[in-house]
Amino acid sequence: MTVVILPEAASDLDNGFVFYEKMGEGVGGYFLGSLASDIRSLRLFGGVHQFSGGYFRMVATRFPYAIYYKVEAAEVRVYAVIDTRRDPERLSGRLN
After folding, report:
1. CA-to-CA distance for 71 and 38, rounded, in angstroms?
2. pTM across the whole model
3. Could you tell me if residue 37 is left (phi over 0), alpha (psi between -120 and 50 degrees) or otherwise beta?
4. Which of 17, 61, 74, 83 is the most exposed place for a label (fewest CB within 10 A)?
């Protein structure tokens, strides 16, 4: 399967990078590398995660983020990469 990161999800990753880079030099890069690894794993494991509200939800391994995606034909489309510490209602509005 191929993995496509939609612009909204790419923006989420950029925002996460900025947030973590403010915590310390290099932390933002570690964040991006970690999330990129999780997203790449969807090539093999796309479609095996919890399904709710029309999206699969994969919890990131090293950061408090969830990756929301759909499997369409032979493609995994990543719609959002959300900080799980945020208000759940904000998430609901984002994915609807």
Report:
1. 16
2. 0.92
3. alpha
4. 74
